[in-house]
Amino acid sequence: xxxxxxxxxxxxxxFMICIMSGCKNGTEVNNKTDINKGKLVTFAFVxxxxxxxxxxxxxxxxxxxxxxxxxxxLFMGPKEANSEMQIEIINKLISEKVSGIAIAANDANALQTxxxxxxxxxxxxxxxDSPVNAKSRQIHIEQADPEKIGRGLIQAAYEMVNGNGGxxxxxxxxxxxxxxxxxxWMKKEMKDHPDKYANTPLITIQYGxxxxxxxxxxxxxxxxxxxxKIIIAPTTVGMFAAAKVIQSSNSDVLLTGLGLPSxxxxxxxxxxxxxxxxxxxxxxxxxxAYTMDSLQKGTITGVEGDIFEAGTLGQKVVTNDxxxxxxxxxxxxxxxxxxxxxxxxxxx
Length: 348
Ligand code: RAM
Known about the structure:
Layout: H1 2-21, E1 42-46, H2 53-69, E2 72-76, H3 83-95, E3 100-103, H4 112-120, E4 124-128, E5 139-144, H5 146-160, E6 166-171, H6 177-192, E7 202-207, H7 212-223, E8 228-233, H8 236-248, E9 254-257, H9 261-269, E10 275-278, H10 281-297, E11 307-309, E12 315-317, E13 319-320, E14 326-331, E15 334-337, H11 341-344
Parallel strand pairs: 1-2, 1-3, 3-4, 4-5, 5-14, 6-7, 6-8, 8-9
Antiparallel strand pairs: 10-15, 11-12, 13-14
Helix pairs in contact: 2-10, 3-4, 5-6, 7-8
This protein binds alpha-L-rhamnopyranose.
Alpha-L-rhamnopyranose (RAM) binds next to α8.
């Protein structure tokens, strides 16, 4: 008797869940339609470069929040970290009439025309990770205070070489606004304390364009200079590439920067990278989607003082940013060393 009843009850239960969640085949999200235009709400995420694991982690969080608020997430990203390809993608998204675009930009200014066109057509535009200029978006999602990141990295490098040894920076593209801002804070830290940093000069800045091979090649070039004792890579792609080259060439040059624990754990454990920093990229993407949803619903407009609920991240406030626009800040950078990296390596 029990067995006979189990199937109909089970089907009924699944059916009820489907009705409650609005799903058609059990896997679809309860997608909303834009109340004003009667169209499906899609939030697009545009990566700096489609294969970058850091971008994929941000998208994981973006996608999670989109599901929670009931909109359709979409991942887009160019083959190379450049703004021309991002412009093509945005034009496509405008013609597809998405409701929101969240972009990690390869250039702060080059996207202004196309993003203005998007906003004029009613699309909500925010940047995350790497900002576009204030006119090109409504809000920027800032992962952590750029001053803390920049000063913190130089202070770490100084400590690692005991105040004695040249520093090289391995960055992404020369136009990347987030890396450029962090580098400007690194330089400011050195300028503010000339005596302290007298024996740790900044020898070179190289650009690996967030491309594995190019970043490896640039690391090889850096290692040819015997005065370099430490590399700072404020990019997850650059950091992983530099670690591999330092290890394979048996170099005693040290490494710090912004790395993914999933990629960097072995190098933190073997001492090539005594410690490094990052934040939770999943949370950056999650916060971006909640910010977009609040803009789309009209709960906020993107001005200073706007307050909204960002799911499990709680209440967030819109504040003025460094670029003359507004931002939402995620939090402080985390420090990863041999004592805690293994806890994080399976997460991001
Ligand atoms: C790379 C990207 C990204 C940056 C991280 C730390 O993946 O350049 O913009 O935020 O590193």
